[in-house]
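User: I'm new to structure prediction. If I give you an amino acid sequence, what do you actually give back? Let's try with this one:
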Amino acid sequence: MDAVIEVDGQGPSTQASHVYDRLREDLLSGRLAPSRKLQMRFLTEAYQTGQTPLREALNRLTADGLVEVREQRGFYVKDISRAELAELTKTRCWVEALALRESMKAATPPWEEQLVLAQHRLSRAPRSLSATTFEDNPEWEKLHRIYHRVLIANCGSQSLVAFCGQLADQLYRYRRLSIRKAFPSRAVGDEHAAIVNAVLNADVEGAVALLTAHYQRTADVILQDETIFPELKANGG
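Assistant: Good question. You get back a string of structure tokens that encode the predicted 3D arrangement of the chain. For your 237 residues, that looks like this:
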């Protein structure tokens, strides 16, 4: 049986959740690069944990689609591909269109107020920490996630919201890897505001069209990023 290091009185399950959160952040941020082998010895030292909670965390991340198991070779960071990005985007558009329609069908003043507040807070946060060179702002990312979650939170299905969140995480990893190409010159604030206006005007099809176009526009930019898809350069774009 693996030895488990007790930290601050934490049991194995609590440790696994802690390791899961830290690994997840490093996977989403790109600090653990796509296709990298996740060696147990390195991870136990880097995350100060035992193998049992580590394996539990890795299994959860595999279910989340952020880690993959290669037969007879162990755990690896999930690789990226243009085909997967296109598929994930299409799937997210499908399921969030459903979630947004259901949210708007059941619209209430408190939900609309929450959405307006989420969009307002996001609009006040600078996209970049620097005015001269693009430097990602963690606060903007946090508010951006809240905004998109509030959009679909009124759909009446926590399972649907959870699945949307899983897809969002997988796509966020692509966006982070391509962050300097996907966002610096893009007026995403206008896109966010337009979606909210459509919601407040009860324009269901308009809101859905704006949301799906918003996601597709991001994917289209990333799909042409030679820095993360070097095969584009080899194939001449």
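You can read the tokens as a compact description of the fold. Here is one thing that stands out. Residues 1-12 have pLDDT under 50 and may be disordered.
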